[in-house]
Amino acid sequence: MAARLTTAAGAALIGADAKELHQEFRRVLAQVAQQPLRGGEAMGFRELLYFRVVGCLGEQGVRLTPEQKREIFMAFGRRRRPTQGSWLRREGQLVMRGAVPLSMDLSMVSRELRYRYRLLQRPQGVVEHNPAICSGQLVFSGTRIPLAVVVEQLRAGVARTELEEDFSQLSRTALDYAEILARIPKPPGRPRKALRFQRG
User: Fold this and answer.
1) Average pLDDT value over all residues in the chain
2) Pairing state of beta strands 127-129 and 93-96?
3) How distant, in Å, are the alpha carbons of 9, 23, 137 from that of 19?
4) Exposure string for 58-80, b = 16+ CB within 10 A, e = fewer
5) Lowest CB count within 10 Å: 51, 132, 159, 167, which one?
6) Which tens digit of pLDDT belongs to each residue from 67-90?
7) 3-state secondary structure 9-31
8) Cα 77 to Cα 173: distance, rounded to the nearest angstrom
9) Orientation of helix 107-121 relative to helix 7-14, angle to 10°
């Protein structure tokens, strides 16, 4: 999983605000991250997993200091070095050592994020480009439904349940992909790179 995403695309994957992610990265993680995060560039799976996990802990009322957040980020590194801190990763768990130990199962969070991460980067099989269909617009595979139509409806606030009824031939994966794209802001005046289809 070497490919990296823009901050906006990463935020769309985890349902967060891109500006807040960028600020959090600079404030808390800049000194320990292997790659700096500049402007709109370069979020990898590790950064996204960190943000998702910290968000989940926050939703459960766990308050973290900047140092604890850095420990969590370091726990997601490839090399699991012994740490003097309170947080570590062990057998699919994020564990906080101490007088009142706490553990979090990472499998569900990681599995869902990995699915969305791969889907955004490799949508082959979900969408296709055929000059003979809808004037060459990207359409969902096996249909004549333009991707852009569903994305714009989601942006306009149409509920996913309504789209499931209107476009019953679309799979859950197809709608997940459209939902991710709908969360990525459109740059002014140019078509979005994320909507281009590249053959693998």
Assistant:
1) 83
2) unpaired
3) 12, 6, 31
4) eeeeeebeeebbbbbbbbbeeee
5) 132
6) 899 889 888 876 555 556 788 888
7) HHHHHHCCCHHHHHHHHHHHHCC
8) 29
9) 130
The C-alpha atoms of residue 200 and residue 196 are separated, in whole angstroms, by 13
Q: Is the model's pTM score more than 0.85?
A: no
Q: Give residue 83's pLDDT.
A: 55
- List the 102-105 sheet strands across, edge first: 87-90, 93-96, 102-105
| Full DSSP string of 57-90 | HHHTT----HHHHHHHHHHTSSS----SSSEEEE
**Four-residue CA torsion sign, 79, 40, 22, 12:** negative
Q: What is the DSSP letter of 125?
A: T
Rg (CA), the chain: 19
107 exposed, middle or buried (CB, 10 Å; 0-12, 13-18, 19+)? exposed
Q: Alpha carbon of 150 to those of 122, 156, 166, 178, 183: distances in Å?
A: 19, 10, 10, 7, 12
The one-letter code for the residue type at 160 is R
